[in-house]
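**User:**
If convenient, please work through this fold.
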Amino acid sequence: MEKIKGMLDLNDFINLRELDLSDNKFRSLGTIYGLKNLKVLNLQSNFFNNSIFSSLHGLSSLKSLDLSYNELKGTIQMKGLHALSNLEELDLSSNEVDNFTTPTGIESMHRLQVLKLNYINVSNISNMVQSMRAFSYLKHFHFRYNYVMGSIGSYDHKWATGCKILCTFLTNLISQQSNNQLEGPIPEDICNLGDLSVLDLSENKLRGSVPSCFNPSRIRHVYMNNNQLEGELTYAFYNSSSLVTLDLRLNKFIGSIPQWIGNLSSLSVILLRGIDLSSNKLHGEIPDGLGNSSEIRALNLSHNNLIGTIPETFSNLRLIESLDLSYNNLSGRIPTGLIKLNALAVFNVAHNNLTGMIPENGQFGTFDEVSYQGNPYLCGRPLPDDCASTGSTHVLSSADDESEELGFMDMEFFYISFIISYLSVVLCIATVLSINPHWRKAWFHFIEVYIIHF
């Protein structure tokens, strides 16, 4: 079907409620101000520019307007939209919009509940954040698949209190879609967003520390992975009792895992993974309190510098499905209580300093050798080293066995060490005798006397 060009005169259709002119080549609308009953207008995929808003003044009943995939550019004057007093949904996706200007005396669009700004490029995110005050009554804000640049900066948070869901998310944060170019530190203004439920700042260039004042009680999901954040997690999130997901992978956090993580009763997913394996990595022991997070389903503490033993309290993680403690410096034995974790499908303790026999019951019969590699003193299936053949005792048979704390001797290592020491002594003696003739004469005299008398 041939696409329509030019202008239309639709004023005779006074009872028209829905009008779909999408996927054409319109550059202007002409006269449609007479469509007083029009509620839905779809102008997607045309060639409309910013002047289109002056053609919409008479559409006082309009509730839904789709201007996606057009040629809108730069700043949108809110004066042109304000005439649409009943507008509830606005889609400006796939344009080059980067700001909204609200003239003095023009109030925010109090009926607008849904705003879509997907697939746009924002060169100055700070200006965009400030201009969002024009939509302070939003309930749903779609800001996905964008290329965002600039520093987050600070803002006047007072206007954001009326924004019910993702508008608050936009104010200061913006990143529902990864791979943006947000940079700079996270401002402390974020602490004013007490009603925030989802925070996604992943895959940007954010640096600095997480503000210690940021612990909203209602937040449920936090994604800050793949940034350049650093410092210690001393107080951030400590009061976020509703937190379900905490993803801090691939950053530069240092210090110990904070004790408050064990007090987050709703937490089901924790991901803490340092990007710099040579320095600036989490250290210290794993808090015993982490085992109190009975709702947790995935725990990833890999690629850090954690020491100490695997907490016995991990046996309380009855719902856990994935436990990754690989690439640390953990020691001691794998707690026998972990065989009670019937939901455990992924278990990885590779590249640590664990010792003793691998548990055989429960889900541990399903894990392969990769889960344990890099622990030279672990033995038992599925590893090729049998505990009996390596000289170790049958460990982990009793939680009260004092021998668990003593480890075991690798006999092969003992024999090799003994031979090397013996050869070193012989070579040392031979070297001394070859250098000093007086000592060499005394040595042979000693040997002669020993043979005569014995």
